[in-house]
């Protein structure tokens, strides 16, 4: 496959001003007539060929200005259409293609999901529908006419506003015409046809414009779409209030489908969602699902401005829309829920998904410079680290400066296909500042390590902080420059309050923000009356790995007293992680008892909200510890140490946990609000430790929690504990859950993922058996992500089993899935990204499995090949 390079970017020689599409929908032979109005750019030399993208296309006919083209005037292959010598004046090209939605197992382009026609065009799916400039900088005005059988497809939806509907004379078919006045790239094109029902709401924008909101679902699911509608309305209001952005069409439609490769898609005026991110009720969705729906609905809606009105020049700029939009959805959820809790949740996600990516063979810059398959770059680095970079801009400029930059960005680039450089320039110009050093974050990959040490001079009343940053080499970038790192900090005095300093020297320090620019910097704070404990990187102000240079006593002090909730949580995590690593090495950690007692205080602290206390109790995952250890990892030793620690904490604090568990009352009518969810989560966290303790009665209590559950959070949470700790009642619980939820796919996905994560001597055999279960299907990504993704992501001991069975299995299913859906296969095969951190025994097996994929007797997709090659590099 071809290597695509940022430096090769060139404008298209022709401009497509308008596109008129007619879809004659038939499951196995859909005809697409595309009429393009084109003109050459002023600089385009006469005779320059018009080259349009295709993918597995069959051309039926081609006309230029109404006349069929002679055979020698064009070349058509499934992946390309070349028109030789197009006119030098504006012209019309009519292209008719035939496609087969029923056979489209890749779920890119036009496909059928459970009898519903739907599309997915980002990143390069439109070229599977018709020949086109399938690239984000080709903006055009689209009109779409959809024709289909009326009885089986009563609903016909397109982008933009509805224009016309009617019957097609003498047939059982009908049509609808949609027009989108906003020029857009092809990746935002969408079409839906099927037998759907919807819930609707009227919305009035801040300036008084009415908008019809509709959420379409399969019949019978309408009662499960209410939370999504609620989330949508709140998102629309929030964007008006926070960023001054209003919606810009008469209708906003969302459709939920069951077969979808990713979470959702922000098509203009017609968002298409994986049903997992739309459907919810207390019986089938957990609190985490409700939160996920709120986030994803908001995220896709926010793309209307950051992504659609201002899009990307090419796919290297993906973080321009994704990083910024993730930042916006994070801010929305922080405003709707608890800001510190949301920050912790986002950092947990970043550290568990992006940090491993950045420390392994798949590491790449937030704004990459080359790729083979763009689908492989929808990564945690582009999305989550991309959001961190936007957050740092806000930290550096302050809220007002940030808003000024955003306002300028919206004003200056509305209607553009832009770049990261354009984005940064808006912040620089709006704030009269220079962000060139900061911009390195977009181009230099890897997670910086920040090492701190400090000393106090009582006589001089000075506190000296030494900070050193190093960034390990990453693929293609052996040498690293120092980053511009904003460090929020406090100097915590003996009474737990921050000490004010009179002067700071050695770095740019402004209030509680210290900006590092060099590899090594020494900062001296004057006027410090007593020895402080430095609290660094408050609110996780930069995506770095901090070695704070504090002893256990000081960490416990911060855990108890820091005014920054994030760093209270972080102190607990650091302690747990350090102790778990020592236990993995067979050592007994110093200060364990003091830590466990501080943990009890945090868990019982009524001044903290329930969700925060739940997070405070969270043990780092086995994967987190493996990453922290970094080399020669033995996952069995990590798992055993972690189990032992949980058991010990559970046994020592059993009474505390029981007290907290019993005291929390959750209202009888289910509500997904943050406060109620926080209560459920703290209760379940207490139950986790009680279940781990092995103390008599704990298994029965866990089973009773499961039996009494009247919502999915409690039912799934308790079942997970029964299975994780292999308690009496686990088997019955699994059966009862299955009986209750069979037939509800999204609920059965949870059952699959619990079973997949269970520690088990022969995990691969268990997974194989589950692939035969009626609830599982290789064709629906949600099923695959739940079972196989659950195994790879949560069953660390099973996947990294020393005999290599987990690696062999991943190789086998990668090859299996790659035949039908390369995107799904490539997402899963990324789990090999950590193989170099394993011990020698495991590394040999993993390498052999990767080589087996590469040398298999089958044509590999570009998606899978690129990932496997990078892993082996
Ligand atoms: N912008 C959307 C990305 C997406 C996608 C990409 C490749 C293949 C399938 C896909 N489905 C959705 C989702 C988002 O980030 O908002
Ligand atoms: Zn997005």
TrEMBL record:
Gene3D superfamilies: 2.60.40.1840, 3.30.2010.30, Neutral Protease Domain 2 (1.10.390.10), Peptidase M1, alanyl aminopeptidase, C-terminal domain (1.25.50.10), tricorn interacting facor f3 domain (2.60.40.1730). Its EC number is 3.4.11.2. It is an enzyme of class 3 (hydrolase). GO terms for biological process: proteolysis. SUPFAM superfamilies: Leukotriene A4 hydrolase N-terminal domain (SSF63737), Metalloproteases ('zincins'), catalytic domain (SSF55486). Keywords: Aminopeptidase, Hydrolase, Metal-binding, Metalloprotease, Protease, Zinc. Its cofactor is Zn(2+). Residues 52-188 form the Aminopeptidase N-like N-terminal domain. Residues 227-438 form the Peptidase M1 membrane alanine aminopeptidase domain. GO terms for molecular function: alanyl aminopeptidase activity; metallopeptidase activity; zinc ion binding. It comes from the Bacteria. Residues 553-872 form the Peptidase M1 alanyl aminopeptidase C-terminal domain. It catalyses: Release of an N-terminal amino acid, Xaa-|-Yaa- from a peptide, amide or arylamide. Xaa is preferably Ala, but may be most amino acids including Pro (slow action). When a terminal hydrophobic residue is followed by a prolyl residue, the two may be released as an intact Xaa-Pro dipeptide. Residues 446-547 form the Peptidase M1 alanyl aminopeptidase Ig-like fold domain. Belongs to the peptidase M1 family. NCBIfam families: pepN_proteo (TIGR02414). This is Aminopeptidase N.
């Amino acid at each position: 496959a071809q290597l695509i390079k940022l430096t090769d970017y060139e404008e298209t020689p022709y401009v497509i001003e308008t596109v008129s599409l007619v879809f004659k929908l038939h499951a196995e032979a859909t005809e697409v007539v595309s009429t393009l109005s084109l003109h050459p750019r002023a600089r385009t030399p006469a005779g320059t060929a018009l080259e349009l993208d295709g993918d597995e296309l069959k051309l039926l006919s081609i006309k230029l200005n109404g006349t069929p083209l002679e055979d020698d005037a064009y070349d058509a292959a499934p992946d390309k259409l070349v028109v030789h010598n197009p006119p030098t004046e504006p012209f019309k090209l009519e292209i008719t293609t035939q496609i087969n939605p029923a056979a489209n197992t890749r779920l890119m382009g036009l496909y059928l999901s459970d009898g519903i026609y739907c599309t997915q065009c980002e990143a390069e799916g439109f070229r599977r529908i018709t020949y086109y400039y399938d690239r984000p900088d080709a903006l055009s005005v689209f009109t779409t006419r959809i024709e289909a059988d009326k009885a089986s497809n009563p609903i016909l939806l397109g982008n933009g506003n509805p224009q016309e509907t009617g019957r097609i004379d003498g047939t059982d078919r009908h049509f609808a015409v949609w027009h989108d006045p906003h020029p857009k790239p092809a990746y935002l094109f969408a079409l839906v046809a099927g037998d759907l029902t919807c819930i609707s709401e009227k919305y009035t924008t801040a300036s008084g414009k009415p908008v019809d909101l509709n959420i379409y679902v399969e019949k019978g699911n309408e009662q499960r779409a209410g939370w999504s509608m609620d989330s949508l309305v709140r998102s629309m209001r929030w964007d008006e209030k926070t960023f001054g952005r209003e919606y810009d069409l008469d209708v906003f439609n969302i459709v939920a489908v069951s077969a979808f490769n990713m979470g959702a898609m922000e098509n203009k005026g017609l968002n298409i969602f994986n049903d997992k991110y739309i459907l919810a009720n207390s019986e089938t969705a957990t609190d985490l699902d409700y939160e996920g729906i709120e986030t994803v609905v908001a995220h896709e809606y926010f793309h209307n401005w950051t992504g659609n009105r201002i899009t990307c020049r090419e796919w290297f700029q993906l973080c321009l829309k994704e990083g910024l939009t993730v930042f916006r959805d994070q801010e929305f959820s922080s405003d709707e829920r608890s800001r510190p809790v949301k920050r912790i949740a986002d950092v947990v996600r970043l550290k568990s998904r992006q940090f491993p990516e950045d420390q392994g063979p798949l590491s790449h810059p937030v704004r990459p410079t080359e790729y083979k398959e763009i689908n492989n770059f929808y990564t945690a680095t582009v999305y989550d680290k991309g959001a961190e970079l936007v957050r740092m801009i806000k930290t550096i400029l302050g809220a007002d400066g940030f808003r000024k930059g955003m306002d300028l960005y919206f004003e200056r680039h509305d209607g553009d296909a832009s770049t990261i450089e354009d984005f940064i320039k808006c912040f620089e110009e709006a704030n009269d500042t220079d962000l060139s050093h900061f911009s390195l974050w977009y181009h230099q990959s890897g997670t910086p390590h920040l090492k701190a040490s400090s000393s106090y001079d009582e006589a001089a009343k000075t506190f000296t902080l030494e900070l050193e940053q190093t960034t390990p080499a990453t693929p293609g970038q052996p040498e690293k420059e120092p980053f511009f790192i904003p460090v929020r900090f406090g100097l915590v005095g003996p009474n737990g309050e921050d000490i004010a300093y009179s002067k700071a020297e050695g770095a740019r320090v402004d209030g509680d923000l210290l900006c590092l620019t060099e590899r090594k910097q020494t900062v001296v704070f004057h006027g410090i009356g007593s020895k402080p404990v430095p609290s660094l990187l408050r609110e996780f102000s930069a995506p770095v790995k901090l070695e704070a240079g504090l002893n256990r006593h000081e960490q416990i002090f911060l855990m108890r007293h820091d005014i920054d909730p994030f760093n209270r949580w972080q102190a607990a995590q650091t302690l747990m992680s350090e102790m778990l690593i020592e236990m993995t090495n067979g050592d007994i950690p110093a200060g364990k008892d003091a830590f466990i007692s501080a943990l009890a205080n945090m868990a019982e602290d009524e001044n903290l909200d329930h969700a925060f206390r739940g997070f405070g109790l969270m043990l780092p995952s086995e994967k987190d510890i493996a990453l922290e250890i970094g080399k020669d990892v033995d996952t069995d030793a990590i798992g055993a140490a972690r189990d032992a620690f949980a058991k010990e904490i559970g046994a020592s604090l059993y009474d505390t946990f029981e007290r907290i568990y019993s005291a929390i009352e959750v209202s009888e009518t289910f509500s997904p609000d943050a406060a109620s969810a926080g209560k459920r989560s703290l209760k379940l966290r207490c139950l986790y430790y009680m279940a781990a303790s092995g103390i008599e009665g704990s298994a029965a209590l866990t089973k009773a929690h499961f039996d009494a559950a009247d919502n999915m959070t409690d039912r799934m949470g308790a079942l997970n504990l029964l299975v994780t700790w292999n308690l009496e009642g686990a088997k019955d619980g699994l059966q009862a859950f299955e009986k209750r939820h069979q037939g509800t796919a999204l609920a059965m996905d949870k059952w699959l993922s619990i079973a997949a994560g269970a520690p088990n001597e022969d995990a691969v055999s268990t997974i194989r058996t589950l692939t035969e279960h009626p609830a599982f299907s290789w064709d629906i990504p949600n099923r695959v992500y739940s079972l196989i993704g659950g195994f790879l992501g949560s069953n660390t001991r099973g996947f990294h089993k020393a005999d290599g069975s987990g690696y062999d299995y991943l190789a086998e299913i990668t090859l299996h899935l790659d035949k039908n859906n390369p995107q799904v296969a490539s997402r899963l095969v990324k789990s090999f990204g950590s193989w170099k951190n394993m011990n020698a025994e495991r590394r040999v097996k993993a390498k052999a499995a990767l080589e087996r994929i590469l040398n298999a007797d089958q044509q590999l997709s570009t998606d899978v090949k690129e990932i496997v090659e990078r892993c082996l590099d």
